[in-house]
Amino acid sequence: MADILQQRLQALASNENKDVIVGIKRGIERETLRINNDGTLAMTPHPITLGSALTHPLITTDFSESLLEFITPATDSVDTTLAQLADIHRYTAKQLDAQWLWPASMPCFIDQDTTIPLADYGRSNVGRMKTLYRQGLHNRYGSMMQAISGVHYNFSLPERFWQLYQQQLNDQNLLQDFISEQYLALIRNYKRYAWLIVYLFGASPAMCKSFLGGRSSRYPFQQLGKGSLYLPYATSLRMSDLGYTNSAQSSLSITYNSLPEYIAGLHGAVSQPSAEYQNIGIKVNGEYQQLNGNVLQIENEFYSTIRPKRTTESGERPTCALAKRGVEYIEVRALDVNPFSSIGITVEQTRLLDIFLLYCLLQDSPTLSDEQQTITEQNLRKVVTDGRRLNLELLQDGHGRLMLDWAEQIFAEMMPIANWLDAAYQGTAYQAALKQHYLCLLDPAQTLSGQLLNQLLAKQQDNGHFMLEKAEQYRAQLVSENYQVYSEDSFAKAAAASLVKQQQIEAEDTVSFDHYIKEYFAEVPECS
């Protein structure tokens, strides 16, 4: 595979072509719980000064009223994207008074699963549907799992890159078909190598005992402080099956060998009845309990480390958008919140992700059978719970291979990509990011999970206390700094405009909620 990578890169990185990569677009979605200054979950409604969670373009909620989600628009500058994200954090921090932002993926202390308030999006049909979907998640999995936070990295390549790359591969299809096909190839390789990202960026080796809610666990947890549990070699408890225990999903066959195949598999899961979920009921005593009784209520319920995406129109299903207009970008979802950053991610991480995603694209990417895809998931699970264990072995092509040996090879093969990006962007930041993260291969204690656990063990400190200190520190840091892209006034105007927009949507509804739900599911994606 290295030969194919070298050949493709040689043509792309030539002097006359090297600039075609300039214009990579990125967007970041960061989730974070609102907490009280004693480390407990804030139970208050979504603050009105943050605008409408339904319509605000930058600040919304995820599962709960307490779970904020910050969204940056796609830009072609890493620095701009992170500055936007910092400004969103800054404005929000200033609106929260005695509340702070939880700086970790695994939740703060939560007394009971049932106390977590569902997100409320108002009286409109679209708002009620969003809340009902979350009611279904609560009934299916419980709310504690939904309080887990992550960072999503949205990534797309410029059209002129795709035009050159299509010529290089002598592909005769329509450009959009080629782009979709290549994003799926990237995704297959991402599935093969996602364990490396979890090793480097996993940052949740410990958690509050309240997350288990008294349930037993098959993991051999050790206790830390008064109320924390940890696994000595874990990288990302967020990515373990502690929360996502959907046995129905484990039997799904959703593969990434072609866009029609992916759409058909995902649509099948949204359409396939589940005996377990049918038993919950859809309407009980006149009150909706979930959108439907199928394996997945909607496409977003499918838990995946990466997704092919297309911007949807109002009321459009994600699979229908993909079927009609192809893949627009990819969403990387295997990222823990970085507790050592006030905004949950660093510029060095984004640059490493750029290099890694291009590596996944430019490598040869054979199709993945169900069995092969299962092996990639088994490798990921090993790194999730034991990633920093010396001599950890993964499966590669049916044979055991030392994880760190495999990682060394990938880093060596990524170096020419870092050189290409630096030549195109006229700097050295990509090579520096690669070298910085290479230290994590030499010493697992340099990984985010290693740094965090070593600090906790050195002080015999609860995970929750450590995160509370960070939350206080980051709030003080954010509110003391100046805005970089936005302003206080622009945020206030955006919040006010979003509230007006929500009122307009509510006023314009002309059909019943029952009819709205029926119409939403009426369109079926073309999978052939």
Supply database-style keywords:
single chain; 528 residues; alpha+beta; Creatine Kinase, Chain A, domain 2; seven-stranded antiparallel β-sheet; 14 strands
What would your notes on this structure say?
By secondary structure, the protein is an alpha+beta fold. The protein has one domain: Creatine Kinase, Chain A, domain 2 (2-Layer Sandwich), CATH 3.30.590. It contains 17 helices and 14 strands. Strands 1, 2, 3, 4, 5, 11 and 12 form a seven-stranded antiparallel beta sheet that branches. It has a three-stranded antiparallel beta sheet with strand order 6-8-7, with helices on one face. Strands 9-10 form a two-stranded antiparallel sheet. The two termini are 30 Å apart. 43% of the residues are buried.
- Quaternary organisation of the protein chains: single chain
Number of strands: 14
Q: Architecture, CATH level 2?
A: 2-Layer Sandwich
Query: How many individual domains?
Result: 1
List the topology elements:
Layout: H1 2-12, E1 25-36, E2 59-61, E3 67-71, H2 78-95, E4 99-101, H3 125-141, E5 151-156, H4 159-168, H5 175-201, E6 206-208, E7 222-224, E8 228-230, H6 247-250, H7 259-271, H8 275-278, E9 283-284, E10 287-288, E11 306-309, H9 318-325, E12 329-335, H10 347-362, H11 370-386, E13 393-396, E14 399-402, H12 403-425, H13 429-442, H14 448-459, H15 463-480, H16 488-508, H17 513-520
Antiparallel strand pairs: 1-3, 1-4, 1-5, 2-3, 5-12, 6-8, 7-8, 9-10, 11-12, 13-14
Helix pairs in contact: 1-12, 5-10, 5-11, 7-9, 10-12, 10-13, 12-13
Compose a concise summary of this entry:
With 528 residues, the chain is an alpha+beta fold. It has helices spanning 2-12, 78-95, 125-141, 159-168, 175-201, 247-250, 259-271, 275-278, 318-325, 347-362, 370-386, 403-425, 429-442, 448-459, 463-480, 488-508, 513-520, and strands at residues 25-36, 59-61, 67-71, 99-101, 151-156, 206-208, 222-224, 228-230, 283-284, 287-288, 306-309, 329-335, 393-396, 399-402.
